[in-house]
Amino acid sequence: MRAWEFRQRHHAKGAWYALRRLLADAREAYALPEAVARVLLAEGHRPAPAGERLNPPKTILFLAASRLEAIAEKRPLPVRLGAELLGARFIALISFE
């Protein structure tokens, strides 16, 4: 059983684990419009690989709280695996300080 679980870490089971791990490090989550996410990516923010492994892929960015305050078009999300978070395509996370 352990060998099977270890092999699955790079497949679907590993994607969910990685997403849960990201959420464990986040104190806040926000849905972003695509245009804002593109600007953040152009600024050099790197998306978390866990979001790219989901289907459909999600762009998940960790941002500083000060940077996120400057973004007007954001919608708060609960920091948990749920319909609202999984339905968002572009997500900004704020980590614990």
Short recap of the structure:
This protein is about 45% helix and about 20% strand. It is an alpha+beta fold. The chain has a 4-stranded mixed β-sheet.
Model description:
With 97 residues, the chain is α+β, with helices and mostly antiparallel strands. The chain has one domain (2-95). The protein has helices spanning 2-7, 12-24, 34-42, 49-52, 65-69, 83-87; strands at 26-31, 59-63, 75-77, 90-95. The protein has a 4-stranded mixed β-sheet. It starts with a helix and ends with a strand. The mean pLDDT is 89.
| Biggest sheet details | 4 strands, mixed
Distance between the termini: 37 Å
Radius of gyration: 14 Å
- Give the overall average pLDDT: 89
Number of E-type strands: 4
Coarse structural class: alpha+beta
The percentage of residues in β strands lies in: 15-25%
How many separate domains make up the residues?
1
Which shape, going by the Cα principal axes? elongated
Number of helices: 6
Tell me roughly what share of residues is in helical segments: 40-55%
Q: What's the arrangement of strands in the largest beta sheet?
A: 2-4-1-3
The sequence of SSEs as H and E is: HHEHHEHEHE
- List low-pLDDT spans: none
Summarize the helices and strands and which ones pair or pack.
Layout: H1 2-7, H2 12-24, E1 26-31, H3 34-42, H4 49-52, E2 59-63, H5 65-69, E3 75-77, H6 83-87, E4 90-95
Parallel strand pairs: 2-4
Antiparallel strand pairs: 1-3, 1-4
